[in-house]
Amino acid sequence: MYTVTVLESFVAQHFLTVPDAGPEGEPHSHRYEIELAFRGPELNEFDYLVDIDDVEAALDGLHSRYADTMLNDLPEFEGYNPSVERFARVVWERVTDEVTDDTVTELTVTIWEDDQAHAAYEASVPCASA
């Protein structure tokens, strides 16, 4: 199995919407580091697992979408607690919509919230040609 991993970091804000969230229930910032790990058993005709230009475009899109924003105000978090776990799922959905190489069969999105905690979402990637 091949793996290609890329990183992006930025600062964004959120507040948790669960009962008794304590200080996390107040608006605050985190330095998020997003790690995308693409996996697949085969390489394409150019001996790549994933088109790095597509990955860089997806990273640019993530940065543009989330840097210096209040996550709670974005439609993808409407009705959800903007936890780091939820954020990982949201990023997975955005990236799999943009990076569609048939050689990629799995994607793991790990998001570090500052240097203290991280969460991940991992799933099989739907085949782009289907």
Keywords:
four-stranded antiparallel beta sheet; alpha+beta; Tetrahydropterin Synthase, Chain A; 2 helices; 130 residues; 32% strand
Question: Which SSEs are present, and which pair or pack?
Answer:
Layout: E1 2-14, E2 28-40, H1 52-66, H2 84-98, E3 106-113, E4 117-124
Antiparallel strand pairs: 1-2, 2-3, 3-4
Helix pairs in contact: 1-2
Taken together, the total number of domains comes to 1
The CATH architecture category equals 2-Layer Sandwich
What is the terminal-to-terminal distance? 22 Å
Strand content: 25-35%
**Mean pLDDT score:** 94
Large-scale geometry: elongated
- CATH domain fold name: Tetrahydropterin Synthase, Chain A
Q: What structural class should be given to the helix and strand makeup?
A: alpha+beta
CATH class: Alpha Beta
Total DSSP E strands: 4
Concise summary:
By secondary structure, the protein is of the alpha+beta class. The chain contains two helices and four strands. It has a four-stranded antiparallel sheet with strand order 1-2-3-4, with helices on one face.
